[in-house]
Amino acid sequence: MTSRYAMLNIAPSNYLPGLVPVPPPSSVLDSLSRLAAAYATPPSTLVDLRPSVYAYSAPGTSAHDASEDEDEAGDAFEFSFARGWLENVLALGSRALARGVDETGEWERAVDEAARLLADLSGPSAQGSTTKTYLLLDSAHGLSTPLAHPYPTPPPTRPSSTAPFLPHTSPSSGPASTSTDISSSSLRLTIRDGTLLEASTGHRTWGSASILAHLLAASPSRFFSSISPSPPTPSPPLRVLELGSGTGLVGLAAAAVLSRLGVGARGGAEVVLSDGGDEPQAVLDNLRGNVDANAAAIGDGVHVRVERLDWGDYVPRGNGPAPLEQVSPASSAAERFEILLGTDLVYERGQASLLHAAAAGLLRFPSPSSSSSTTSRPTFWLALPIRPTHADETAEVAELFPSRFSAAVATPAAQLRRTDPETGKTYRLVAVEREELLGPSGFVSSGRTGRGGAAAMGELRYCVLRIEWDEVR
């Protein structure tokens, strides 16, 4: 069976020595050093989200052929072989230390190194924090330069929090660009991920966040159509809120793109990054650190702040339609936002209801002038994975944010309606656009899953919803 390690003549099964009889510790240390080099992952990882490199597959297609699937299975075998060898080294070294036969201290060093590598091969929950640099824009798109290679899907030894899509290739265009220069004009964001043990889901940059950050950079006019190139008079600041920010990649991407669009000369923008899930203080502290780390990427006209936000505060009280005053005081008209952003926000039953309450309490109502199709309307952009294990949660989202053309919109439940006190009009939130993508799950499978190459590479289907107010008549 072939694999990338075999092709490079670095397959662990080819060079790791047998442990019966027990080899000298110096030989074990040499093998550990070679294994560490083969599976090394830098503490700072580069993730290329630029439009010229980052690409997604259409649903129902796979980016890998049969030979690549075989290659992944070969990699999984080598990974399993290396882990088993390390576990045996730990056992042998521990016995040698217990017998006091380590005059040179080599067995102690071998045990320490084997334990470190074994933890490194165990995935994000066993590692320390990691810092990733996300590239968003290049000069070819008017806002940075191509890399020698797109950031590769990481080996199964150390699944990264976010793996980018494969580059577009075609007979006419060939692979993605091959230049290694990263221009100073490139738009880059530095994001710290903690471990899954550190603060649950909020310390991880999930796959949906990479998708939405890429789309924000690739098509800014799709999200910020209200920004006029030459407004006749200064306009009020554009207000953007990211719900469940986690590490803040999407909110920071929005802020950086707005800065590049020159929003500062058009009234400016305020971008609020929020969270309030498990262990919120740890998540918010990390979020503020990521905001500080990216201050240079955001111009003076865009103000970014971090706030704790509890979605439960926006659940309407009573059984009837919820006028604005029946919701949290924080949802007054002055506190509402033109744009809401959210990714990977529904992974338990009941969360969709809380999310709906927060979105309904925080998204600005349409103004009379925004009824025209050429005028931007307040919008909630929601990106979610379509996981077979979360079918109930996906169904909840579809029920609470139905398509504008579905029958459910005609007679919405009373608790889903909201009345704008300024106009007296009643609205409900509906999905006016739905895009389905195939991208990386953020985890790389350690072997065959029975679903072909896409599953072996840890790919998932995602949907991106554009949600707006629809008047209830």
Automatic annotation (TrEMBL):
Region called Disordered, residue ranges: 146-185
Regions of compositional bias (Pro residues) in chain numbering: 149-158
SUPFAM superfamilies xrefs: S-adenosyl-L-methionine-dependent methyltransferases
UniProt biased composition (Low complexity): 159-185
Domain of life, per lineage: Eukaryota
GO molecular function: S-adenosylmethionine-dependent methyltransferase activity
Signal peptide: none
Descriptive protein name: Uncharacterized protein
